[in-house]
Amino acid sequence: MGKIITLSVPDWVDEKRFKEAFMRALMESTPERLSVEELRKLLGIEETEDEIEVPKEVENVRKKDKERIKWLS
């Protein structure tokens, strides 16, 4: 369980830069090992799945490279 801290900053403070600086300071004060779930929660990252389509040309290059490596071995 974490602690809830509420901060009040002046209007002239750049919220994005302040959050980045705060997160850097938080990361420096955390233990050396941190689970992925804890890190996602700290950074506000929601779990996502992106599918990336690999063009057919790239697939062909990969096959040729694999064949070349087999030949060199």
Order of helices and strands: HHH
Class per helix and strand makeup:
mainly alpha
Fraction of residues in β-strands = under 5%
What does the main sheet amount to? none
Q: What percent of the residues sit in helical stretches (DSSP H or I)?
A: 40-55%
User: From the alpha-carbon coordinates, what is the Rg to the nearest angstrom?
Assistant: 22 Å
Q: Extract low-pLDDT stretches.
A: none
Q: Give me the count of strands.
A: 0
Number of helices: 3
Q: What would the average pLDDT be, to the nearest integer?
A: 78
Shape: elongated
Distance linking N and C termini:
53 Å
Write the layout of secondary structure elements.
Blueprint: H1 15-28, H2 36-43, H3 56-72
Describe the structure.
There is one protein chain. The protein is mainly α and 73 residues long. Helix content is 53%, strand content 0%. It contains three helices and no strands. It has helices at residues 15-28, 36-43, 56-72. The radius of gyration is 22 Å and the shape is elongated. The model has no long low-confidence stretch (mean pLDDT 78).
Gist of the model:
The chain is an all-alpha fold.
Looking at this protein, list some descriptive labels.
mainly alpha; 73 residues; elongated
